[in-house]
Specification:
There is one protein chain. The protein is mainly α. Helices cover about 50% and strands about 5% of the residues. It has 13 helices and five strands. The chain has helices at about 15-30, 40-45, 55-70, 85-95, 100-105, 105-115, 120-135, 150-165, 205-215, 235-245, 250-255, 265-290, 295-320; strands at about 5-10, 35-40, 75-80, 140-145, 175-180. The strands form two sheets. A three-stranded parallel sheet has the order 1-2-3. Strands 4-5 form a two-stranded parallel sheet. α4 runs parallel beside α13. The radius of gyration is 23 Å and the shape is elongated. The two termini are about 35 Å apart. About 35% of the residues are buried. It binds iron/sulfur cluster.
Length: about 325
C-alpha cells in the first residue's frame, strides 16, 4: 500500500515558472511513489477573496496548467475542495475539539489581521481547522511542506491528536515531507516570483510574451554600460540561466564578468531557452484546452473518487463521536 499524500493549493489562475519549478514539479515527482490527492482549495481562497468574479476561470486555468505540466489524473486525484461537501462537515466537527487559543496564536492569522483589518472574518481564524479537515478527510499521511509551513502542519497534528485521544483513533497523524522549493526570484530581481508582485512569467506564455517579459527584467544594477564588467552572482537573469541554460551557465558568467556579452544578448538567449523548455507544455496545454469539457470532466472524476473516501471517513468520525444515526436514509 502506498502512503497517501495530501496537498491543497489556492486557485491562483495561470501558473508562473516559480510555481512550475517549485510546487508543480514536486507534485509530479510524488505521483509514482505515493497515492496523491491534489486539491484546489477554493473555500480557503474565500477567506481573503472579496471578489469572486475570476474564481471559476482561475480554477480552470490552474487545473489546465497542472495537467499540461504532467500531473496525471489517472495516477492522482485532482479535484476542487467545494465539490466534496463532506469537508465542511468535518471542519465543523473538528472545530469542536480545537481550543480557540491554538488558533489565535497562529502567526498567519496575526499577519492577516494586520494586512486585511477591514476583513477579519471567522474563516481566517478557522483556517487551520479547515486545513486539518482537508488532510484528515482523505486520511492524508504525508504532507509536502516548505520549512515555513511547518507550524501549520503542527496545528493539524495537534487537532488530529486531540480528536483521536477524545474519541478513539480515526486519523493518522500527518507527517511533514520537508521539501526545499527553489526560490525563484521575480523579474524585478528583488522579490520572490509571485502574481502579487507582477514580476512573473506564465508557463503558458507565448515565445513573444516570454521575450517581452524577459527584456524588462532587472539585471546587475552596477552594470550601467555595456563595457562595465558584470556580477552574474547578483543577477537574476543569470540565476534563470542556471536553470534554463545549465550547460552554458559557466561560460555566460565568465563572459559577463569580462563584459564580453551584453545584457540584451544574454536576455535574448534566456528568453529563447525558457521558451523552448516550455514548448512541450504549451503544446499539451493547447491540445487539452481544445477538448471541450476536458477539465470539467477530470475535476468531476476527481471529486467522485475523493468523495468516496470522504464518505467513509465521515461515517467513521460520526460513529466514533457517538452521534445518533439517522433512522431512515
Ligand atoms: S550579461 Fe547577463 S548575467 Fe551579466 S549582468 Fe547582463 S543579464 Fe546579467
Amino acid at each position: 500500500m502506498k502512503k497517501r499524500v495530501f496537498s491543497g493549493f489556492r486557485p491562483t489562475g495561470k501558473q508562473h515558472i516559480g510555481n512550475y519549478l517549485g510546487t508543480i514539479q514536486n507534485c509530479i515527482s510524488l505521483q509514482d511513489e505515493y497515492d496523491c490527492v491534489y486539491c484546489i482549495v477554493d473555500i480557503h481562497a474565500l477567506t481573503t477573496l472579496e471578489n469572486t468574479k475570476t474564481l471559476q476561470n482561475d480554477i480552470y486555468d490552474m487545473a489546465l496548467d497542472w495537467l499540461a505540466a504532467g500531473i496525471d489524473p489517472q495516477k492522482s486525484i485532482v479535484f476542487v475542495q467545494s465539490h466534496v461537501p463532506q469537508v465542511m462537515e468535518l471542519y465543523s466537527l473538528l472545530s469542536m475539539v480545537t481550543p480557540l487559543s491554538w488558533l489565535l496564536r497562529v502567526p498567519t492569522f496575526k499577519e492577516k489581521v494586520k494586512s486585511q483589518p477591514h476583513n477579519v472574518n471567522y474563516g481566517l481564524v478557522g483556517y487551520p481547522v479547515l486545513m486539518t479537515a482537508d488532510i484528515a478527510l482523505y486520511k492524508g499521511e504525508v504532507v509536502p511542506v516548505g520549512e515555513d509551513q511547518l507550524p501549520h502542519l503542527e496545528i493539524a497534528r495537534e487537532i488530529v491528536r486531540r480528536f483521536n485521544s477524545l474519541y478513539g483513533f480515526v486519523f493518522p497523524e500527518p507527517q511533514a515531507k520537508l521539501t526545499s522549493f527553489p526560490l525563484i526570484v521575480g523579474l524585478d530581481g528583488s522579490q520572490k516570483m509571485s502574481k502579487s508582485y507582477s514580476n512573473y512569467i506564465e508557463i503558458a506564455a507565448s515565445p513573444e510574451e516570454i521575450s517581452e517579459q524577459v527584456m524588462t527584467a532587472v539585471t546587475d544594477p552596477a552594470r550601467r554600460y555595456r563595457s562595465d564588467p558584470g556580477h552574474p552572482e547578483i543577477c537574476n537573469i543569470y540565476s534563470l540561466h542556471k536553470i534554463f541554460t545549465p550547460s552554458q551557465a559557466e561560460e555566460i558568467a565568465s563572459e559577463c564578468r569580462q563584459a564580453s556579452i551584453g545584457c540584451v544578448k544574454c536576455k535574448k538567449m534566456l528568453a529563447r531557452n525558457i521558451s523552448s523548455a516550455l514548448e512541450p507544455l504549451r503544446e499539451k496545454r493547447a491540445a487539452l484546452a481544445s477538448k471541450p469539457d476536458y477539465i470539467t470532466e477530470v475535476l468531476a472524476d476527481g471529486a467522485t473518487r475523493a468523495e468516496a473516501i470522504a464518505k467513509e471517513t465521515i461515517k467513521e468520525v460520526k460513529e466514533s463521536m457517538n452521534l445518533l444515526k439517522r433512522g431512515r436514509a
